[in-house]
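Continuing the series of single-chain predictions for the mutant panel. This is the parent chain; the variants come on the following pages.
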Amino acid sequence: MIRYALVCEQAHAFEGWFGSSADFDDQQARGLLECPICATRAVTKQIMAPAVAGTKKTAPTQTPAQMQAMMMEAMGRVRAHVEENFDDVGDAFAAEARAIHEGRSEERGIYGQATSKEVRELVEDGVPVAPLPPAPPKKPQLN
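Parent structure:
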């Protein structure tokens, strides 16, 4: 199996697994490849470095605790970016996301709250949604 990093004409990145390079070429030529986000069939391979198995074992450069701290920091930056640049629609998130998807509301980035049932219905209807990383703990809550 070969894993390719793929991108569509709308710059949505995703990956695909193929039995061989020829399988990818065949599926692309027949128009069988489709972006899972916007459904366009204009999909191409991204430039990738080959995954070559080495013979030397290397020790991780960070400890698990350091990697967890780095991940938490990155998630905090994602959340801060969303809160600074997107519209907070509160508990109207599901309705507003659906309205944007259907063209009844202005196209823009939003965030807010939704029940698990609302999220499931949005996903089933093809409305693109993703969970927002949790807010970092307040200083008094830290050990």
